[in-house]
Every structure is written in structure tokens, then in C-alpha cells.
């Protein structure tokens, strides 16, 4: 069974590769490369897979999941300029793809236990764009 919890944060970013010129960055990322940065209201859906506990009937205590999300994602990301304030985005371009991977890396060890595992992370950068990530194994095909 898979349960999903949603959280939101607001953050600014610039999508730009330092080794490229301004024009090359504009060609690659469009307005996302604007050096002043811009904000998004990100929505993150975190899914946990497991079997419901025989006593509680829950795959995971939703209060505990909420606390993990607040501590590991909302706290570090909310109202930050990702490129300047949230490693690894001082050296990794903060695309929705890379944000999904970073959130996965932050959550996976905190969620894992013998009865459950992190199933997927979905990051909505805008109402018409989202990225799904389910760990490296899902990509090795
Ligand atoms: Ni953007």
C-alpha cells in the first residue's frame, strides 16, 4: 500500500550553469536563467510504501511523516534562495529534477524501516509541471 503526504514551500532559484555564457544559459533555460532569480510555490508529494500495522492500521504515523517533512524539507527550503542558501544547489542546478532527487536523499534514510520504504517523491514546480523520482534503482532500467 502507498500513502502520500503533500507539503508546500516557496523558494527562489536560478537555473544556470556557471561554465556557460549568459547567452548559452538563456538558450538552455530560457527565463529560468534570469540572473536575478525568481520564485516558485513548490508542492511536494511524498509517498511511502508498506503494509499497514496490524494494530494501528497505518503504513506510517502521519504525524511522524509530517514532522520529518517539516524538518528535512520545509525547514531547509522554505523562503530560501536555493542557489545561495541550500546545498547542494551552490553547485547543482536547482531544476525540479534535482530538487526531487535532493528531497529523496534527505527523506529516504529517515523514512526507511523494516516495514516501510520511501516510494516516490513528486515535485510540482508550477501547476503544469511536475517531476517524479523514485530513487536510483528506478532509473537503471
Ligand atoms: Ni524557475
What report would you give on this structure?
- With 141 residues, the chain is α+β, with helices and mostly antiparallel strands.
- It has one domain: 2-Layer Sandwich (Tetrahydropterin Synthase, Chain A), CATH 3.30.479.
- Helix content is 31%, strand content 30%.
- The protein is built from 4 helices and 5 strands.
- Strands 3-1-2-4-5 form a 5-stranded mixed beta sheet.
- Helix 2 crosses helix 4.
- The two termini are 23 Å apart.
- The mean pLDDT is 94.
- Bound molecules: nickel (II) ion.
- Nickel (II) ion is lined by residues 13, 32, 38, 40.
- Residues 13, 32, 38, 40 line the site of nickel (II) ion.
Strand-helix topology:
Layout (H helix, E strand, L loop, with lengths): L1 E12 L8 H8 L8 E13 L11 H16 L2 E2 H4 L10 H16 L4 E11 L2 E5 L8
Parallel strand pairs: 1-3
Antiparallel strand pairs: 1-2, 2-4, 4-5
Helix pairs in contact: 2-4
Bound molecules: nickel (II) ion (NI).
Tags for this model:
5 strands, 141 residues, Tetrahydropterin Synthase, Chain A, 5-stranded mixed beta sheet, binds nickel (II) ion, 30% strand
Mean pLDDT: 94
Bound molecules: nickel (II) ion
Q: How can the largest sheet be summarized? A: 5 strands, mixed
Q: Which structural category fits the helices and strands?
A: alpha+beta
Radius of gyration: 17 Å
Short description:
With 141 residues, the protein is α+β, with helices and mostly antiparallel strands. Helices cover 31% and strands 30% of the residues.
Amino acid at each position: 500500500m502507498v500513502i502520500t503526504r503533500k507539503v508546500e514551500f516557496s523558494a527562489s532559484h536560478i537555473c544556470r550553469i556557471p561554465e556557460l555564457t549568459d547567452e548559452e544559459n538563456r538558450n538552455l533555460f530560457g527565463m529560468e536563467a534570469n540572473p536575478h532569480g525568481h520564485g516558485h510555490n513548490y508542492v511536494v508529494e511524498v509517498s511511502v510504501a508498506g503494509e499497514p500495522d496490524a494494530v494501528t492500521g497505518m503504513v506510517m504515523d502521519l504525524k511522524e511523516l509530517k514532522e520529518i517533512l517539516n524538518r528535512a524539507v520545509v525547514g531547509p527550503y522554505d523562503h530560501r534562495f536555493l542557489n545561495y542558501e541550500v546545498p547542494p544547489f551552490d553547485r547543482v542546478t536547482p531544476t525540479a529534477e534535482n530538487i526531487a532527487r535532493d528531497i529523496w536523499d534527505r527523506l529516504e534514510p529517515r523514512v526507511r524501516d523494516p516495514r516501510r520504504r520511501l516510494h516516490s517523491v513528486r515535485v510540482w514546480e508550477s501547476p503544469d509541471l511536475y517531476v517524479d523520482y523514485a530513487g536510483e534503482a528506478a532509473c537503471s532500467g
